[in-house]
Amino acid sequence: MSTALKLAVGSLLVGVIVLGLKTLAWWITGSVALLSDALESTVNLTTAFAALIAIRVAQRPADANHPFGHHKAEFFSAVLEGVMIIIAALFILREAYAGFLSPRALDAPIEGLLINGAATALNAIWAMVLVRQGRRLKSPALVADGKHLWTDVLTSVGVAVGVLAAFATGWWLFDPIMAALVAVNILWSGSRVVKESLSGLMDEAVPETTLARIREAISDKAHGAVEAHDLRTRHAGKVTFVEFHLVVPGDMTVFDAHEICDRIEAAIGKAVPDSRVTIHVEPEHKQKHTGIVVLD
C-alpha cells in the first residue's frame, strides 16, 4: 500500500474517532455550536472516503482509454470536498438560526468542551500531517483533506470561545452566534478549495517558479539546438506535463537530436520530479526567433 493510501485510510480512522468525541460533547451539553461542529465532522468522513477512492483511481497506470493516466481523479475528490464543506456550513447556519430563535442554557459545558478539545487536538495534528505529506507527495486530494480538517479545527476553536462566553456571561445567544460566525468562515474556506481544484481540472499552467526552473533546464541543456518555443505546461495530481518545440539545424542527425532531447528530459525531471516531457523536434526553417534562448 502506498504512502498516500495509508494516509487516506488514516483519515477515515481519525474521522471516526473525532466524530464520536464531538457527538458525545454535543449530547452531554445540548450546545447548538457543538452540534454544528459534529455535523461538520460527518462531512470529514465523507470526504476522507472520497479522497481514498480518488487516490486509488489516480494511482492506476495509463491504459487504452486513459493514455495520459488517471491523475486528475484527485481533483474531482478535492472539488467534492470543497462542495461538502460549503454544504456543512449551510447546515450549521440553519442550526445557528434555530438556536438564535430559541436560546437555552447548556448542560455540563466544561465537560463538553474538554471532550471537544481532545477531538480538536487530534484533528489539528492530523491536518498538519496531511497537508505536509500531501504537498510532498503532490496529492491534491490529501492537501484538500488536510485543509478541510484545518477548517474543522478553526470551527472547534470558535465553538469553544462561544460556549465559554455563554457560560461565563449567562448570555446563551453567544452559542448560536458563534456557530454562525464559524459557518461563514467555513464557506470561505470551501470556496477556496473548489477554486484551487478547478484550476487543475482546467489544465492551468504550473506556477511561475516551476516554469522558471523548466525554462532554465531547457536553456542549459539544449546546446546544439537553435531555439525552443511554444512551451506549454499543465499539472494533474502529482504529475507535471511539459511540452515544447525544439528547433535544430537542418543537417543534424536524428541520433544527435535525440541526444539533446534526452539531456533536456533528464534536466527537467531533476528540476521538476514526476514530470512527463514531450518534445517536438523541428528543422531550422520553423524557427520563430522567440521563446527560450539556448545557452552555448
UniProtKB/TrEMBL annotation:
Instruction: Print the keywords alphabetically.
Output: Cell membrane, Membrane, Transmembrane, Transmembrane helix, Transport
Q: Which residues form the Cation efflux protein transmembrane domain?
A: 11-202
Name all Cation efflux protein cytoplasmic domain ranges: 207-284
Query: Where can this protein be found?
Result: Cell membrane
Which residues span the membrane?
7-28, 34-55, 75-93, 113-131, 152-171
* GO molecular function per UniProt: cadmium ion transmembrane transporter activity; ferrous iron transmembrane transporter activity; zinc efflux antiporter activity
Q: Does the keyword Transport apply?
A: yes
The record's listing under Pfam families reads: Cation_efflux (PF01545), ZT_dimer (PF16916)
GO cellular-component terms in the record?
Answer: plasma membrane
Q: Which residues form a coiled coil?
A: none
In the bilayer, the protein is annotated as: Multi-pass membrane protein
Please give a single GO biological process term from the UniProt record: intracellular zinc ion homeostasis
Its family? Belongs to the cation diffusion facilitator (CDF) transporter (TC 2.A.4) family.
- Record-given protein name: Protein p34
